[in-house]
Amino acid sequence: MKRETNWHERYMTGDIPWDTGRYDFNLSKIVTRRPIQPCKTLEVGCGTGSNAIWLSRQGFSVTAVDVSEIAVQRAIKKSSKARLACNFFVANFMKQKISSAPFGFVFDRGCFHSFDSPKERSKYVKIVNSYLKRRGLWLTLVGSADEPPRNPGPPQRTARDITTAVEPYFNILSLYASHFDSNMQKPPKAWVCLMQKRK
Ligand SMILES: C[S@@+](CC[C@H](N)C(=O)[O-])C[C@H]1O[C@@H](n2cnc3c(N)ncnc32)[C@H](O)[C@@H]1O
Question: Domain with 146 in it: what CATH number?
Fold first, then answer.
């Protein structure tokens, strides 16, 4: 099955265990503690928009994309209900150009980690890098391989999978073990990786 169709199917059938209906505490913790100042922001693989909406509430100017039309439709509905002006649209991040670059901050929760091959992850990193302004920040939340595989559960990556892909382009500001915000009794483990574009 084509990958895009697969994501669409999952939203259609409700097979979306990652979608808690709220923003992830790992995002709010990094944004408020570092702090990351409100700026022009891109969320990649935004799903139904909870994180983009939170960022928008904090004063970030958010563009958010997802390959699934149904996810984006839900995100638009949620943000208009909240009377927030996020710019949601359907796009395949690996193939289509996002026109409003450069961004000061890029966020993704579970999109970077969804690519199985090192080649695809490296391509994803290069694209993120190309959309960031000089010294711009990227925060990614990635399923961790430091627990047995779970079903349902996120793709699992090692810290080395992350560093191998990102270090050619980014300085790693922090990389630590956490867990996803989740409605599961035992939330899946996650890596929280904050990076800064080198040049
Ligand atoms: C694990 S889900 C996480 C969704 C959302 N970030 C959340 O936390 O609720 C991964 C998301 O990435 C999207 N995605 C996967 N590949 C993509 C691509 N190439 N371009 C844009 N979105 C993509 C999927 O449609 C899906 O919504």
Answer: 3.40.50.150
